[in-house]
Amino acid sequence: MSKQRVVFAWAALAPFLLLFTIFMVYPLIQSAFLSANQTYGPGTRTFVGFDNFTNLAEDPLFWKSIGNTILYAMGSLFIQLPLAFGLALALNSKKLRGRSFYRLIFFSPQLMGLVFVSILGALAFEKRAGLVNRGLAWITSNPALLEIDWLQSNIMATLILISLWLYVGFNMIYFLAALQNVDQSLIEAAEIDGAGAWGKLIHVIFPAVRPVATFVVLLSMIGSLQLFELPFVLLDGSGGPNNKGLTIVMYLYQNGFEIGDLGYASAIGWALAFMLIGLALIQIRMVRREELAK
Fold first, then answer.
1. What pLDDT, in 10s, does the model give residues 109-126?
2. Superfamily of domain 67-293
3. The whole model's pTM is what?
4. Per-domain boundaries in the chain
C-alpha cells in the first residue's frame, strides 16, 4: 500500500477515532479513575482504592437492586419472549387476513417514548380510578378489585405488565423476520413424514430461528439490566415502598446525582458493565457451540 493511501485511510478514519476517543475512551478511563475515589460533589474527591467495590459487596441496597432487576429480567425472558414468539407464529400464517395491520398494531407502542409510556402506565394502574382496576372490577363484578394498589405493593408486576405491552411487538418483529427465512422445503418434508404442528415447531421451525432467538434473549437481558426510565417515572424517582422497584441503574443515579458520590456510582456502573460483558460472553459461547454442532 502506497504512503498516500495510508495517509488517506487515516484521514478518513480520523473523525471517527476523534469522536470515539472523546465520547467513549475518555469517559471509560475517567469512570475507572472515579470508581477508585469517594467524591463529594464534582470538585472534591478522596482516593479510596477498591473500597467502593468492597462496600458494594456489603451494600444491601445494591443487592436489593440486583434482585429486583433480575426478577424483571426473568419476567422478560419467561413471559415476554414466549408471547412475542407466539404472536410471530400467528401473524406469519398466510391464512390470516390483515396481517400487516395486526403487525402494525402490536408494534405501535414502540413508536412512543418511554416517559410517555410510563405516564400512561401510571394512569392505567392507578388505584380506584385506573383503567386496569376498573376493567378487572367490571369483568369480575367484584368492586374489591378497585383497591389493588399496583404502584405500591405490586410494582414489579406493574413494570412487567407495562413492558409486555411495550416490547412484545418489538421482539415479535425479530421472530417474524426469522420465521420468514425458514426453509419451506423442510416444513413440507416434515409434513410428508407425518409431523403435526407441534412436531414441525420443535424439530424444524425452532432450530431454524434459534440464532435469532439467542440474539433476542441477549438483547432483552441487556435491556432489562439497563432498566431506568420506566420505574423512575412511575415511582417519582424513588425505589418505591421497601425499594421494591429499585433497579441497578436507578441506584447508580441516586448515588451519583442525588447523593453526589460519583465514585460509588462509577463502581456501580462498572459492576453493571461486568454483568453485561458476562452476558455477551455467554452468548458468544452459545453461538460457537451451535456452529460446531452443525
1. 888 888 888 888 888 888
2. MetI-like (1.10.3720.10)
3. 0.85
4. 67-293
